Amino acid sequence: AQRVTQPEKLLSVFKGAPVELKCNYSYSGSPELFWYVQYSRQRLQLLLRHISRESIKGFTADLNKGETSFHLKKPFAQEEDSAMYYCAVIASGTYKYIFGTGTRLKVLA
Amino acid sequence: NAGVTQTPKFQVLKTGQSMTLQCAQDMNHEYMSWYRQDPGMGLRLIHYSVGAGITDQGEVPNGYNVSRSTTEDFPLRLLSAAPSQTSVYFCASSYSKGNYGYTFGSGTRLTVV
Fold this sequence. Notes:
Chain A is an all-beta fold. Chain A has strands at residues 3-5, 10-14, 19-21, 24-26, 32-38, 45-49, 60-61, 72-74, 83-90, 97-99, 103-108.
């Protein structure tokens, strides 16, 4: 079955510490992967796409096809990074966009 | 550009009532979707549309209907509201099949009592 797994519901780190939010997927073919962020009581916003290989707000994510992972990383966390983060995938040849269950990141002062 | 506009922002329904959540986008996006967001379950796809006149079911379609008569509008109808439909509902649209990412509306917080 098509699945996106975010194993951590909550991740707490101190300000200035590195952050890694995990995302694993199970799809055949060539999926396209995304990270979205949702700040408190706001709409979801696209953070980054794996095909663009960009860095947004200091976050990066590398697609590892061997491990079927797309972990989100930031070398130095900031308090304003506290939010809910969702990994999402669209399977090649389909129109269905599937989200993981999300990880809440708390950056402590 | 207003982006994706959802109305209403909040709604309380009694069990058995019906209502329509409105979603409109002004970006000429072909693809539109409805999701529900529940604690611990993330976002689950209810219905989606790949263009005017074309809709399909997502993961959790039961109890909901959609139609897409125009490119701009994609309303979600609750046929007979149940407490299990208490959730936050998000509408999203995309220029293509989603590979440029979705633009989300601000959500509708629905409570069914």
